[in-house]
């Protein structure tokens, strides 16, 4: 008999406390009598005292790097989605910069199947825009869209689709299957050899600069292209105050653009580079406090639609070296919700309903992900996350579920903790612990103890 | 002073202490027997990931004049080209018992990482990292400026002085120059007024907060009568060719920012001309200027040895926190009296890059 869960005195979207019954893969009942709706014997009904806890729709990440196939030494689809579940996610998008590249139906189906086998979250492969991410020829977008993976988000992330003609063609082409181009906005010529945000800190510490204009110029071009051809554009990891202004302007013109910000761009600045610790090396780079303030404001007022992690695990050898030799990227799946709580909820900028919007409803809508980002209502798929906003925890990368340790928040105390995650009614996380299948030897070694 | 990574590690007292110690070292270098027994039994490793004959030889000479054992380790391009990593190199040198590591690296911050990653116990001296810092170059420049512009008949090296009231123009490729960054910080600490002169393309975005004035016009700055003019090498090897380069042509650069005989003649009589070398003769400096009596470029090289002797001395025998690190017997007498206060003065380092 499938387990059923009764969440007692839980606050859906941070609202008034009530009881929620999870049964049959669905939200089966809501209200003070919800427990009565269970058809299980009382012994088979797991009751969770959720007093003070918030219930959100399962989180949807439009932007992760799960590294498989190719770099299983940094992360696998199983370890990355396990980290996702621990962070409250029920669906994640896996970026295309794998080896081989996710630029054919075969590779995206492989990623999709590995995600389904792992069972921690739904995995939606992102298709490459161009063959091999080379920026020269369109990949077979239609084949990926029609594959079992049903790809709807296409991106050369890690690289910018910098050729304006190729970008235009891609924007037009994906209209046939309601796809979206997710652009990594980085003018390559302005960022040759770039190591960090170009400004006061880079001038002082002598690292080659990554100017804000290299992001803003591409976004400005792309929103105009999207307007011209009437297509959907999604801007990945927007990081500058100027980018927020451009998106605001584009939306005011009715252009179909959406934008994301990462947790790290909500909380960290380029000052972190002063110690030359490559854990703070990321692309786009950490910006200034003024940029952090602007992206927070943009997220609060809806200019920025979503938070996406850009979870980018790297092996120790790729980070345990001098700055210039280190890889770009940082992990984020297990800290994203806490960072959003700290920077947006605890500061009064957003409600928990807003959190559900930017971490679940909007990303599911942009990615055309069915069954996720739904209202918490009877009959909806039970893709849910139970959050305790009052817990506090210190980030310890070695104890995280991700296979890599490059968390920029190492040693910091963050508010909030994921208590439970439900994927179609099945608890992937309970009491904050990923629910490994004891029969599956793959998980035995990495099992996290509470 | 545990390491010397940046001139921002030095406050005014510490900087003067290094310069005064260098003056004592320089005095010994006029003797027939130049070698001092001070660092006998200590091991100094020159770890050079980037070509540099001049700086390496200068450090090697300095260490040998102090009787240290010197190991030259050339590892050009090692880490970036996926050879041995900086970490493994550091662990190797630690296992071999290096007391000091003099590192030059093409990556900004590599000496900082070497000093703070827990890979080695050795004292780390930054001999130039990427576009960041080259502190001993700035110290030898300050030593040279102080000697020429504050020295007197009875105190020819200007011992005890700072550089207050002096105006130094730093001219050329500031953007790619670790020499410029180190000099701006140190000259400011010592009370000098600094003007950076460069085409706008060769100044970093973010130069605003630097403790220096900025000018795009060399002739205007020379008309102010600077006491010292420091010409920077145009670092063509660091320049991206994107956009066709940082200036239209070498000829135009020379016309606008080169120091030639005509510009030299406009300087006050006491002004001196410095260049960290190696020079691009005919580009940033003409032969007339480089070989003129007011050019102190060759003297900078000689002073470099004295300054590096002082730095190695202060790092390796100036502090007592390393067991068995007491100065060897027979240290130069003049230094013995200053070594204890040197410790006190040099521990007040500013943690600007922490």
From TrEMBL, chain A:
Enzyme class, spelled out: hydrolase
The protein's Enzyme Commission number: 3.5.2.3
Residues where Zn(2+) 1 binds: 63, 65, 157, 310
Keywords, in A-Z order: Hydrolase, Metal-binding, Pyrimidine biosynthesis, Zinc
GO BP term, pick one: purine nucleobase catabolic process
Family membership noted in the UniProt record: Belongs to the metallo-dependent hydrolases superfamily. DHOase family. Class I DHOase subfamily.
Native source species: Cellulomonas pakistanensis
Protein name, as recorded: Dihydroorotase
Binding site for Zn(2+) 2: 157, 184, 237
Superkingdom of source: Bacteria
Region entry Disordered, spans: 431-450
Pathway: Pyrimidine metabolism; UMP biosynthesis via de novo pathway; (S)-dihydroorotate from bicarbonate: step 3/3
PANTHER family: ALLANTOINASE
Active site: 310
A single MF term (Gene Ontology): zinc ion binding
HAMAP family: PyrC_classI_B
Cofactor: Zn(2+)
Presence of keyword Ribonucleoprotein: no
Keyword Zinc appears in the UniProt entry: yes
GO cellular component terms, semicolon-separated: cytoplasm
Automatic annotation (TrEMBL), chain B:
Domain spans labelled Aspartate/ornithine carbamoyltransferase Asp/Orn-binding: 165-315
Family the entry assigns: Belongs to the aspartate/ornithine carbamoyltransferase superfamily. ATCase family.
Protein name: Aspartate carbamoyltransferase
Matches recorded under InterPro entries: Asp/Orn_carbamoyltranf_P-bd, Asp/Orn_carbamoylTrfase, Asp/Orn_carbamoylTrfase_sf, Asp_carbamoyltransf, Asp_carbamoyltransf_Asp/Orn-bd
GO biological process annotation, one example: 'de novo' pyrimidine nucleobase biosynthetic process
GO CC terms: cytosol
EC class of the enzyme, as a word: transferase
Subunit composition and interactions: Heterododecamer (2C3:3R2) of six catalytic PyrB chains organized as two trimers (C3), and six regulatory PyrI chains organized as three dimers (R2).
Taxon lineage: Bacteria, Bacillati, Actinomycetota, Actinomycetes, Micrococcales
Binding site for carbamoyl phosphate: 54-55, 104, 134, 137, 277-278
């Amino acid at each position: 008999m499938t387990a059923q869960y009764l969440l007692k005195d839980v606050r859906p979207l941070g609202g008034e406390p009530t009881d929620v019954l999870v049964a049959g893969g669905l939200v089966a009942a809501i209200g003070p009598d919800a427990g009565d709706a269970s058809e299980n014997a009382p012994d088979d009904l797991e009751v969770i005292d959720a007093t003070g806890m918030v219930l959100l729709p399962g989180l949807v990440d439009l932007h992760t790097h799960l590294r498989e196939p190719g770099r299983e030494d940094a992360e696998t689809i199983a370890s990355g989605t396990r980290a996702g579940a621990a962070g409250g996610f029920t669906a994640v998008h896996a970026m295309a910069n794998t080896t081989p590249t996710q630029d054919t139906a075969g590779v995206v189906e492989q990623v999709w199947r590995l995600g389904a086998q792992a069972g921690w979250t739904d995995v939606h492969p992102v298709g490459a825009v161009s063959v091999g991410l080379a920026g020269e020829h369109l990949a077979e977008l239609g084949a990926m869209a029609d594959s079992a993976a049903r790809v709807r988000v296409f991106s050369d992330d890690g690289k910018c689709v910098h050729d304006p003609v190729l970008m235009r063609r891609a924007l037009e082409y994906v209209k046939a299957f309601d796809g979206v181009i997710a652009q990594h906005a980085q003018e390559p010529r302005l960022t040759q050899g770039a190591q960090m945000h170009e400004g006061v800190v880079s001038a002082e510490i002598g690292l080659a600069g990554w100017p804000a204009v290299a992001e803003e110029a591409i976004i400005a071009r792309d929103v105009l292209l999207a307007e011209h051809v009437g297509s959907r554009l999604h801007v990945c990891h927007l990081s500058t105050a100027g980018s927020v202004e451009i998106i605001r302007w584009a939306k005011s013109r009715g252009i179909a653009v959406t934008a994301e910000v990462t947790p790290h761009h909500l909380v960290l600045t380029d000052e972190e580079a002063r110690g030359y610790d490559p854990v703070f090396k990321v692309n786009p780079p950490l910006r200034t406090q003024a940029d952090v303030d602007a992206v927070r404001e943009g997220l609060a007022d809806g200019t920025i639609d979503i938070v996406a992690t850009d979870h980018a695990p790297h092996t120790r050898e790729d980070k345990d070296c001098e700055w210039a030799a280190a890889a770009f990227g940082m992990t984020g799946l297990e800290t994203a919700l806490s960072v959003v709580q700290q920077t947006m909820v605890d500061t009064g900028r957003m409600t928990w309903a807003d959190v559900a919007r930017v971490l679940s409803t909007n990303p599911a809508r942009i990615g055309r992900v069915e069954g996720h980002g739904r209202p918490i209502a009877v009959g909806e798929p039970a893709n849910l996350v139970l959050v305790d906003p009052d817990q506090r925890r210190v980030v310890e990368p070695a104890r995280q579920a991700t296979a890599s340790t490059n968390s920029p928040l190492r040693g910091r105390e963050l508010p909030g903790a994921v208590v439970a995650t439900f994927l179609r009614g099945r608890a992937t996380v309970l009491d904050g612990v990923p629910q490994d299948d004891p029969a599956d030897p793959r998980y035995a070694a990495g099992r996290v103890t509470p | 002073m545990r390491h010397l990574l940046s001139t921002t590690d030095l406050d005014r007292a510490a900087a003067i202490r290094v310069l005064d110690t260098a003056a004592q070292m320089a005095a010994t270098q006029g003797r027939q027997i130049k070698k001092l027994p001070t660092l006998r039994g200590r091991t100094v490793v020159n770890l050079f990931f980037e070509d540099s004959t001049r700086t390496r030889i200068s450090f090697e000479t300095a260490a040998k004049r102090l009787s240290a054992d010197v190991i030259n380790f050339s590892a050009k391009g090692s880490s970036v080209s996926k050879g041995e990593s900086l970490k493994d190199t550091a662990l190797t040198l630690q296992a071999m018992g290096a007391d000091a590591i003099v590192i030059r690296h093409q990556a900004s911050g590599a000496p900082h990482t070497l000093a703070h990653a827990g890979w080695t116990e050795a004292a780390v001296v930054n001999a130039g990292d990427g576009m960041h810092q080259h502190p001993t170059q700035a110290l030898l420049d300050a030593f040279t400026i102080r000697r020429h512009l504050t020295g007197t008949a009875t105190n020819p090296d200007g011992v005890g002085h700072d550089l207050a009231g002096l105006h130094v123009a730093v001219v050329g490729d500031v953007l790619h120059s670790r020499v410029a960054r180190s000099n701006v910080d140190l000259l400011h600490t010592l009370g000098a007024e600094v003007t950076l002169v460069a085409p706008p393309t060769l100044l970093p975005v973010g130069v605003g907060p630097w403790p220096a004035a900025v000018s795009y016009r060399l002739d205007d700055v020379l008309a102010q009568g600077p006491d010292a003019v420091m010409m920077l090498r145009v670092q063509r090897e660091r320049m991206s060719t994107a956009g066709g380069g940082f200036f239209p042509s070498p000829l135009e650069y020379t016309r606008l920012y080169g120091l030639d005989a005509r510009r030299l003649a406009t300087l006050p009589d006491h002004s001196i001309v410095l260049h960290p070398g190696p020079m691009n003769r005919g580009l940033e400096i003409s032969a007339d200027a480089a070989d003129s009596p007011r050019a102190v470029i060759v003297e900078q090289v000689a002073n470099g040895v004295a300054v590096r002797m002082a730095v190695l001395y202060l790092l390796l025998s100036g502090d007592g926190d390393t067991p068995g690190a007491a100065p060897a017997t027979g240290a130069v007498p003049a230094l013995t009296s200053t070594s204890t206060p040197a410790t006190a003065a040099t521990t007040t380092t500013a943690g600007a890059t922490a």
